[in-house]
Amino acid sequence: MSSAVYHIKKLAGEIGEYKKPAILTPIFVVLEVIMEILVPFLMAYLIDNGIDKGDMNTVIILGAVLITCTLLSLLFGILAGKFSADASAGFAKNLRHSVFYNIQNFSFSNIDKFSTSSLITRLTTDVTNVQNAFMMVIRIAIRAPVMMILAFVMVLIINGSLSIIFLCLLPLLALCMYLIITKAHPIFERIFKTYDKLNKVVQENIRGIRVVKSFVRESYEKKKFNAVSKEIYKDFSKAEKLLALISPTMQFFMYLAMLLVSWFGANLIVSDLFTKGELISVISYAMQILMSLMMLAMVFVMITMARASARRIVEVLDEETELTNPENPVTTVKDGSVSFKDVSFSYSKDSMRCALENINLEIKSGEMIGIIGGTGSSKTSLVQLIPRLYDVLSGSVSVGGVDVRDYDMKALRDEVSVVLQKNVLFSGTIKENLRWGNANATDEEIVRVSKLAHADEFIQTFPDKYDTKVEQGGTNVSGGQKQRLCIARALLKKPKILILDDSTSAVDTKTDADIRKSLREEIPNTTKIIIAQRISSIEGADKIIVLDGGKISALGTHEELLKASEIYREVYTSQTRGAE
Length: 580
Description:
Layout: H1 3-12, H2 19-51, H3 56-104, H4 108-114, H5 116-138, H6 140-158, H7 163-207, H8 209-214, H9 218-244, H10 246-270, H11 276-318, E1 338-345, E2 356-363, E3 368-373, H12 379-384, E4 394-399, E5 402-403, H13 409-414, E6 416-419, E7 428-429, H14 430-434, H15 443-452, H16 456-459, E8 469-470, H17 479-491, E9 497-501, H18 509-522, E10 527-531, E11 543-548, E12 551-556, H19 558-564, H20 566-579
Parallel strand pairs: 3-10, 3-11, 6-9, 9-10
Antiparallel strand pairs: 1-2, 1-4, 4-5, 7-8, 11-12
Helix pairs in contact: 1-11, 2-3, 2-6, 2-11, 3-5, 5-7, 5-11, 6-11, 7-9, 7-10, 7-11, 10-11, 15-17, 19-20
């Protein structure tokens, strides 16, 4: 099966409950065309047998029939437009849903493969292109060939010799259209990839606008944007120049056909082999044939653009998450114990270098574990394996005595709360954001976890307190406040394992110490894993893991590591000297 056919079959499955309007549209389009085809034929008869012969009875009867045909054509056109709008809008809705829902199942590695900016382009621009193409296919792509065929048949019926004009011109016109479109298609493929780059530039700029302004980098960002924008302009103008050739080409063949029909038709009239009414009807059918070709050219242009978009959408629909549930998954996590056995991990299966190598680690339920290491030592990679955000390359990670790959992923992740380095808050109130941890949490529970995370103290200073609106991305709260809200949200899940990935870096040392004290006293049975850059944040932990180059360099308590680990001792010394 060719890729184009596969893409069509895959996308056709998204029509779903909108099959009825999708089928009714071409039916009403055909009926509309039939009415339009009858008009020139009836007009010729009216001229030859009514007006020329002075028969008013024929004029009145055929005039009434012509008005009826015109009104029916209008009615069928309106119905076709209504059903095509319903079908195309519904198809686009289903397509967006399927793409978005599949993205929700993606693992982190799947998202890394496409990039966020590319996925947004596919959900918006690409879906719109396919929607427009679908509307044209069920309406214009039906109307144009049906009208062209029926008009050609009518010309054959009226005068077969004149049909030779169209038989000669149509293949030449089709060849010109084919050459233009095949040249334009690769350019559109390139354009949509550049759109991804443009989205990425805009996203980065808007997300980091405060950094841009603080470093006075507006000029640099403008240059970066202009470079990508210019690239799109060059490709688009090149494609548009090619597609612009369609209109003059169509006009040339249209006028050529009209001249030839008029010339030969006039000669036939002089020879009494043709009537004036028949000439007028043949000219009308010639117009219909050539207008149909013009419409087909528009369809081909839209399909040319949509082909690239369809391929990109199907890529997302076909992408299967690398993380799947087993056949009979375990749905209960017994406790918060964690075990790493001979674990190696790489973000890419083709990579020659592992992010983690030969990790062996035992964590008892309820322990507080600290993790420290230099930048790039894979601290985050280590903890992301616990809730199975990634799968190990070799070895196994167990939670509650069960391999994480044997769990139902929802059940596992419900028991593991992760506060990542990049804290994210969503549009809505503080209360709504906190309820991401537990949708059914009471106001009392929300206040309790906020106090544990030392967030209640600043929430109470807001006029609307827990009903305070959080702007997108949490831009109206400070970094430290955002971190404490995210910790509170994680605690609301009442997890068996709580992972804080450098999640108190933006709070002062006293608040950091208060949060750790609260966690130790209020949730003693929850396993707490804290990644930190400050030794003061983890020195009271039951065990501290020192990571270096993706391997465990040392493991022990604060006192043991000061004696046994040179890396830990150097960090501690540099930080205490800095404090002094």
